[in-house]
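User: I'm new to structure prediction. If I give you an amino acid sequence, what do you actually give back? Let's try with this one:
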Amino acid sequence: SDSALFGITTLQFTTHEIPKKMDLLNSFVYPDVPRDLWETVFSKQKQMIIVGVLGKSNEAHCNKLVEFGMLNIQPNLEDTAGNDGRVKFYFRTEGETLFLHFDSTFDNVVLLKMAEEMMNDKASQPSAHFITFNSAIRTRYSRILLFALQVCHILILVETSVTFDLSYLSLFKSLKIIREKYVLKFLPEMLRKAGVGSFMGKECRLASPRLIFLLSLPETLEKPTKEDIQALEVKLEDFITKTLRNEFIITNNSAMSLFSLPKGKKFVFYTQSNEQRKNPTRDMMMKLSAYLDKPGQTIMNSERDEALMNKLKPYEFIGFPDFKVEFHHSEKKRNSLTILDLVQVHVMDILEPVFDETFTSVKHRTKCGMALPSIGQWYDMFRFMYQVFIENPAEPSYNDYEPEYKSYLENFHTLVDIDEQFFSEVGAQGLELAMLTYKEMLPVHYSARYHQTKYLDALHLLGQYVRGPQLHPCVKKLKEYCDSIWMSGKQQCEYPSLRGNPCLMGKHQPLDPSEHSSGVIYVSSCNCGRIQGHREDPYTIRQANYEFYQCMAKSCSNCKRLDHFQFPIFEPSTSDFRAAEFINKNFSNLMTFDGTGRTASDVNNKNLYRPTQDSPYISSSERSQNSFANFSFNIVSYDGPGRTYDGTQTKEQNEELYERGFALNHKTSTKEIVDIESYNMDKIRTTCNSQNQDDKMTTKTSVTEPMAAIALEIGPTINAVKYPSTTEYLPGMLHAASPAGLLPRFPSWSLVCLGSSSIYTHNTGLPEHVQSGFLSGSNYLLPWDVNVRLEHAQSWAASYEKIRLRKKANPHSSKPFERNNLFTLKIFIGVEYECLRGHRFIMKSPDSILRSSAEIARDSGSNVVFNDMPIYFSCPCRNAINNTAQLMRVHIITPKAPVNVIIDPKVKIFQNNMQSSFTFNTGVTQSIKLTQSSYWILRLPFVYEGDTGALEPPAEVNTNSAIMHGVLMAGMYGIRENEPNEESLLGF
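Assistant: Good question. You get back a string of structure tokens that encode the predicted 3D arrangement of the chain. For your 988 residues, that looks like this:
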């Protein structure tokens, strides 16, 4: 009976004190054994059944014995919060059962405390991954569970839910392996050396412990019947038995089983009480309040009042005198089985000589190997086991232990933690596949961008396999692996070309940048435009602007025999020459220029050389800085007796006129007359009058003539001339801010004469065999009608009049021309663009492409002569990538007249959204004179280079904002009349 189990007798007494012979439930927390209990219990030879209680709880006290109904006091009033590894003893002095209550990481309070400790220990580091945290929880619980299975006869697993937790299966399997592989090897020897546990035999445990499962039914409105609960218990018992046998956790041989399940006896129990959630203080206050509210109660003599006051007691035997205490089970309670009753059944079964708890037939049953030591011997064994299984694994080092025991300590976590093992194996597989993905179809050399793309593909595949704490180590290994492959001979050079394309060769250190190769091929025309060829992506300015065209000249029949204008280049006087090294203290001057390409510091610099002699080798810097210093302008009537000028004309005024499209002649003692349409003339007058009111320029204007012209005369000269260096050359391209006296080693420009002007016919345009690669309808040059007054070419004028009269047959129409010697000349201009695929076309204005000859008007050329033309423009071809065309050539057909067309090309390239710019020029100190009745082609640089490197062209050009990237500056063209001594050269 229950009374026999706990030494409880039925008695009745009336006293103010608790009788001494009453047997209370004693408890203490290991290892703090009270002295009186040690002397009365643990020093005796009494035998007791050890019952362990382990599992889950939701309350702060973690006490799972509340459901047993055997505690003297509610745990909420007594127990402190649970702690991992804490073992609390419960027993009666005269009883035969010792309860061991284990706190573990499956108790919610312990779990929360452990989480806080892990976060506080490494507050500066990222929190542990959930899988790592869960792994630590399982490992600690497994140690407690293995220890309990070693020291208990019966083990009760408490569940807070209605179902069996299947995660126990992995724990049971791991502990079974650990016990067979490690524990049975080191524990017998350690017990022998310690001199304890000799009663346990070779199995090193008290018995194959019986497992009892205590589960909780949920709180529902409809309370289940006793029959429903029993049916549920039977079904769960069958399920647990079948599952454990299928996993080989229990077998027919109890010695080879981790624990045993009693056959034919109940081992699953459902409880419906809510003892765990009771608040005794609140309940006591509620009952006391109910008692005090009852009127007329002055003495406690009724049985009803006695029952109420008994309920007010926080624990047994406390309270009022003169009341009856009875220890007996009522008939109703006898018919209701409790968990304590179930434990009693199994305890009595162990105390009696029963057979082995196996599932074999009756004839194969054997006597159970059950050890029942004295409580003193058991306690000595318990202390040693606690140190072996609980305390020692918490130490940081295991080097002082025996090899077998050390191996157990080191491998315990690996065997128990199947989650980490699973994720580790999956991670290894995913890492291998990711490495194969990266290594698949790798080229011989590849860029950092391709390397990053392949790495990201491999990383994406890795992320599909790897989870948990293994993710970061696997990512690190993958990164190291991919980087090692790329850097072990597969790294691409990636040195950028002048067009921004990376070198495709393996990483190398060439002495000359021209040894790089991007593998990109462009199509470009030769200097004269007759043939087209493939060119490699250039890496040096010499390759881009000189060597390719020299190579093409060898294949072009025209380029070999044509006359070429010689641009000034560096001519060394010694073999020991070198590139110049210069530093501009005011670096901003290199990047910001006014309309003429000069820096702000040049305007106020009085020490600059100002050469005016006809030296062809003065640097472009000097020319850009001083070209306007010696000119004066006279706007006169052609009926006036003469022209005057003022040599004090400011440079700013001259620059303003120059930027508005007027040609200047840099040769002394030469008169140049260029007729401009009347609307252009008015614009000039307005500009000059508004901005130069204080100038000393003498202005005379005639309003009687319908047409006007501008006469330009050269002012006084300065004799100082600075010649270019013959020992140092300019490393880059010539531009307005280049140091004075330095010239490049090769020309970036080209000017060739194709021959007579008769090559071009305006009706048919440029034929394919003369100029290849032009888009259909865009192979026409634009006419530019120029009115000029010739004062010296009388013979040519007479011949011109005869031809004109023959065509016009109107003698009266020639009078004004004969009187004024004013003639109209036709010049053909073509501003040609070429894309990287070799498509060529002519622009009819700064924002439109010539698409057919029908779009050409009488004076269409003025649209490109007097306007800045964009350097880059969108090509009409269908190429979606790199369809930016570049202004590469200017076609000029000079008239058959005693005049020379002069050109002074300047290219301004903008950077940083037009906040800075470079102005490039040819380096010629005087305007270039083109011969009469000839077809000239000026080829511009393919790549422009500033002081800090190449200026990359835009990847995409908008038609409306093309001039924001760079322009061919207006004012490039001019007309110059031949001197009298040159007239005989015309051949008329």
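You can read the tokens as a compact description of the fold. Here is one thing that stands out. Residues 438 and 455 are 6 Å apart (CA to CA).
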